[in-house]
Amino acid sequence: MPRGMEETTATKRKFFRIANFPHVIGIIDGTHVPIAAPSQDEEVYVNRKKFHSLNVQVVCDADYVVLNFCTRFPGSTHDSYV
User: Fold this and answer.
1) Angle, CA 28 vertex, CA 36 and CA 77 arms, to 5°
2) Has residue 80 been placed in a domain?
3) Which of 29, 31, 45, 67 could form a disulfide with 52 if both were Cys (CB 3.0 to 4.6 A apart)?
4) Are 14 and 63 in contact (CB under 8 A)?
5) What is the per-residue burial (b if ≥16 Cβ within 10 Å, else e) of 13-45?
6) Which N-terminal stretch is annotated as signal sequence (predicted)?
7) How many domains does the chain have?
8) Residue 82 within a domain
9) Range of the domain at 18
């Protein structure tokens, strides 16, 4: 995350130049990262597309720097919960 008001303002400006969208300091998205079938609780790692995965959430800044990520949810976890 931006540290201090100057970095926050600079990040907001970059996002505005990119997408004409004001007051943004980070973008968020999720994806399913394929994994080998685990030996325990295998079924909870099967996602809606029927492959084993982790449901991963990532937050990036305007320079595509990863600010935060979460890898704790198995593939069967609904996106709205992550």
Assistant:
1) 40
2) no
3) 45
4) yes
5) eebeeeeeeeeebbbeeeebeeeeeeeeeeeeb
6) none
7) 1
8) no
9) 4-74
Q: What is the pLDDT of residue 1?
A: 67
Instruction: State the Cα–Cα distance between residues 51 and 44, nearest whole angstrom.
Output: 11
Scan for tokens 């996602």, then name that residue: 47
Residue 63: inside a domain: yes
* Residue 50: predicted pLDDT: 98
In a domain, 24, yes or no: yes
The dihedral sign for the CA sequence 8, 9, 13, 19: positive
The per-residue pLDDT for range 20-78, each reduced to its tens digit, is 999 999 999 999 999 999 999 999 999 999 999 999 999 999 999 999 999 999 999 99
